[in-house]
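New to this. Look over this protein:
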Amino acid sequence: MRFRPCIDLHGGRVKQIVGSSLRDGPDAGKIETHFESEDSPSRFAEMFRRDGLDGGHVIMLGPGNEAAAGEALAAFPGGLQIGGGIDPENAAQWLERGASHVIATSYLFENGVFSPARLARLVAAVDRERLVLDLSCARRDGRYFVMSNRWQTWTELAIDAETLGSLAESCSEFLVHAVEVEGKQTGPDLDLVELLSGATPIPATYAGGIRSLADIEAIERLGRGRLDFTVGSALDIFGGHHLRYADLAVA
């Protein structure tokens, strides 16, 4: 298990927000923001490069983040994945700009229904070895289902061994945010951790709710060391008070 750092971009700035507060329409301005950095995205990317923390991700939360994302990738070429609005038309361009992998979610769905044809087009554009599928999910009726469209839309794709085994044939990794706890510092969704560790046949990174070293130890134990993890708002470099980046960078 290893720490995967993140750079979340909103409005061209490095921020930590509650992802489920991202909304279109009349509630678009009601975003819960924990932290907004005065530093550039490149400053964080350079720090991750210095500390040898490759495999992290840059996430573009909505439009207007392309320049900031490019700046981060240029500071750590080949060391960061990128997600947010990825499709077959732009995926190869992001790889050319220095991303190690592209991360896809919403493009893969049509009206909440998973589209194998869309996944095939994306694989044809970038090759499966450089594709990460974001399967961020929430629980409904005792099962986990992928959320798309910035976590506003329920899909019919359930997270289970069958789904993960099938999708693993078309990508190299999974990134999974626990939507219900992400950004809230209320503790990780350990049921999801156990599910992922027992079902994923390829590397997977868990995100959501992590607030302490004890939480990280629980993820390692229940995840049987098979899952990587990322931390956002609890981390001191993002204004948090519970976890020190220096401790995770050397773990």
